Amino acid sequence: MKNYLIIVIIIAVVALMIWFRPEIAPTGSEEQTAEELTAINAELNRVDLGDLEAEFQPIDQEINAL
Amino acid sequence: MKQNHLMALSLLPILLFAGFVSAQTDRPGATTSRARRLQTEQTRTDFRQQIETRQAEREKLQTERRSALQERISVIRDERKQQATLRINDQLQKLNARILEHFSNLLDRQSEILNRIKARVDTIERAGREVSQARADLAKAEEALTAARVAILAQTAKTYQIQIETETTLKRDVGATRQALREDLEQVRDAIRAGQEALRRTVTNLAGIMSNATSSAPTTARTN
Description:
Mean pLDDT of chain B: 85
Oligomer: heterodimer
Structural class of chain B: mainly alpha
Number of strands of chain A: 0
Distance between the termini of chain B: 50 Å
Helix content of chain B: over 70%
Number of helices of chain A: 4
Number of helices of chain B: 5
Distance between the termini of chain A: 98 Å
Shape of chain B: elongated
């Protein structure tokens, strides 16, 4: 019965350690966060709002020919 | 006794698995991220539905106005100019729709990026860092994205009608309609750009928090 209790306690401790894993290992999260921020920044830089001037050029040519 | 040991040992992997699954899915961070994703998806669906409704209304109005233009265009004697005017009218409507579609897609991407930043702010906060500035930046970015969404919806409802007065003023009349569309699209683009800048500012400030935390860490360790 004693052994059984010890095993249950060990299981509970291991489960708790898994549960709180991110909090006791913040360094990994910080590295991931830094990488993610770099990736987000790169994605923001890739965003192309478009060139309205170029989009209107064919229409402007038609208007000038009127 | 042996039976008890066996039972306990068989329970071990089950409990470990339960703990692992729970850690992966039921942590407050994971739940919040999932809720945010669902909310973003819902907002996007609502937004697209509103756009579709307005597009349908606009297309109906455009057809009516095109018929009116075809009637009015008879004041122009030159048939080549008549055809060109109708063509420009169609091009203006198509350009408006195409650019709005592009802006809507950009807005979807910005919303996803906003969620990713929020998740990172949560992580940084859980690590014990001060994130009040980041939360304020996020709120501003969210406001900017909402304003961009409103601007796109308003623009989706607009139609552009060429008001022909006389043949001699045709170029000016068509040019005025073109200019109105251009200015309206610039306003929407500026709203999207404002959202973009707000997101960029948030990321830059967040990176600053991370780099300050990293550079101050050894100092803290020495003083302790």
